[in-house]
Design brief:
The structure holds two protein chains of two kinds. By secondary structure, chain A is mainly α. Chain A has a single domain, classed as Orthogonal Bundle (434 Repressor (Amino-terminal Domain)). Chain A has a two-stranded antiparallel sheet with strand order 1-2. The longest helix of chain A is centred in the C-terminal third of the chain and has 11 residues. Chain A is globular, with a radius of gyration of 11 Å. Chain A starts with a strand and ends in a 5-residue tail after the last strand. Chain B is an all-alpha fold. In chain B, helix 2 runs antiparallel to helix 3 and helix 3 packs parallel to helix 5. The relative contact order of chain B is 0.11. Chain B has two domains: 52 residues; 82 residues, no CATH class. The chains are: A mainly alpha, B mainly alpha. Chains A and B meet through helix 3 of A and helix 4 of B.
């Protein structure tokens, strides 16, 4: 699964630290999600969706192998 | 009626299991566990080095080392979020696999070395190196703490 969290974050001019504080996780978590090393839970995906004011499927995308 | 009772029973059991699974000590206990385990392990090594061999002292120290390592293993991280919980469960899986491999592999390696290098002694009998419960538990907890920190490091990023 891919995601465009880095792009969305850049559009809002947020650092990983800022974003992590806003949704209540560690910076490592944001970094791992951006690098596609960790697939977040639905709860976290919905929090990101609310923050970026975009539907979840405009932030996360399935790939062929998913 | 019976189905409702069974469903309630399973729900209660599930919530009890989840309570145990989600139980964590506060973060400060991690450092206490790690430092304590290292100090007592150091004392154990020194105790052997000076030639003392009191089994009671050794057994008590070994048990305390394991308890302190368990304390460190069951303590919260600085920020305990879902990624940390995911990494922790991965580290338990890896620790289980490697501790099992260790407890199978070590006696075999020891046996082969005995056979190939030191040659057969004592009237032709070859002794298997027996692994103690302490050794297995020490490796299990040690691997878990090591893999937890290693996997956590993989998530770090230098660029913002």
């Amino acid at each position: 699964m891919r995601n465009r969290i880095k792009v969305e974050r850049a559009e809002l001019d947020l650092t990983q630290e800022d974003l992590s504080k806003k949704i209540g996780v560690s910076r490592q978590t944001i970094s791992s999600i951006e690098k596609n090393r960790y697939v977040p839970s639905t709860i976290l995906a919905l929090k990101l969706s609310a923050l970026f004011q975009k539907p979840v499927n405009e932030i996360f995308f399935l790939e062929e192998e998913d | 009626m019976n189905q409702g009772k069974t469903a309630n029973k399973y729900r209660d059991e599930y919530s009890r299991v989840m309570k145990v699974l989600n139980f964590r000590f506060p973060h400060k206990f991690k450092m206490i566990g790690l430092v304590g385990a290292i100090l007592i392990f150091g004392f154990l090594l020194g105790y052997k080095f000076i030639g003392s061999n009191d089994l009671l002292v050794k057994d008590v120290c070994r048990t305390v080392v394991l308890l302190l390592m368990l304390l460190a293993s069951m303590s919260k991280d600085k920020v305990e979020d879902e990624y940390i919980q995911h990494v922790r469960s991965q580290s338990y899986v890896l620790a289980f696999i490697f501790a099992t491999a260790y407890s199978i592999g070590m006696p075999l390696i020891s046996f082969l070395l005995d056979l190939l290098i030191t040659k057969v002694r004592d009237g032709g009998t070859i002794n298997f190196h027996e692994i103690s419960a302490f050794e297995v538990m020490f490796m299990l907890l040690g691997f878990q703490l090591l893999y937890f920190e290693t996997l956590k490091r993989f998530g770090r990023c230098e660029t913002e």
